[in-house]
């Protein structure tokens, strides 16, 4: 079997899950494939000395960064995030600038994207990072095309993920690309995670992405919308349920949630349909009705517009076997 060496960069203030999540996926994939050498995984710091994660955990690298590439570049270079990306060691940036381009795949997890951007490695590329750092990434590095929504983004040999656990999703996607769906699914089951959240899935569910309304009638209405995606969710109907005039309701809902009622409903229905396609074997027409689209064509337009893929193709790619 082809060896795909993986090198994970360590530094003080690293986020421990950014390191251990992908590490466990690649190591687990080698076991699942029946070849422990499929993914030789190593960790390295600038001087080879131990580092402290931002939660205080002490990690001992396998080697120095210089020694790690002495015999050639890794197949996959993983750059995690964490508080240590805020004021990185210039020597680390210099090392990334010199050696990261040699890796066949360059991967960042969470705010590790900030290190790649500082080294100029994201210029002209589409990328993402933890939702709290997207604005900073976009403002400080204007040559980077920042997409704040997906949990991970692929742009050629470059792959960037959103916060923390999204690194597991990205690593599973890379394993699926290398060794096939069955191996990736075995790893996902072992780690008790889904195989796999698609890269273009939003970093938040609709209710987390939107603000929670302060006023109880609107807050309760948000929950009701989520539970009744196939109901009458017109502005008039929702306003009546909230006991407000349509105009007052629309203005209040947007002010408190950050989304218009129509946009919020669209997101709820899309999320509901995606979940049914991923987790059940219900037909596309039934899913469309249950999600409030009325017709399969309406759902197809929503999927194509937002996700860039029709429902049938989405199911083919992301439906969990046996459900």
Structural class: alpha/beta
How far apart the termini lie comes to: 31 Å
* Strand percent estimate: 5-15%
Strand order of the largest sheet: 5-2-1-6-7-11-10
Tally the helices.
Answer: 15
Mean pLDDT: 90
H and E string: EHEEEEHEHEHEHEEEHHHHHHHHHH
Major beta sheet summary: 7 strands, mixed
Shape, please? globular
Question: Which regions have little confidence, pLDDT < 50, spanning 5+ residues?
Answer: none
> Which value, in Å, is the CA radius of gyration?
22 Å
Number of strands: 11
In helices, the fraction of residues equals: 40-55%
Question: What's this, in brief?
Answer:
With 323 residues, this protein is α/β, with parallel strands linked by helices. The chain is built from 15 helices and eleven strands.
Task: Explain what this protein looks like in three dimensions.
The protein is α/β, with parallel strands linked by helices and 323 residues long. It is 47% helix and 11% strand. The protein contains 15 helices and eleven strands. A seven-stranded mixed sheet has the order 5-2-1-6-7-11-10, with helices on both faces. Helix 1 runs parallel beside helix 6 and helix 1 packs across helix 7. The longest helix has 19 residues. The two termini are 31 Å apart. The relative contact order is 0.09. The model has no long low-confidence stretch (mean pLDDT 90).
What features would you highlight for this structure?
alpha/beta; single chain; globular; seven-stranded mixed beta sheet
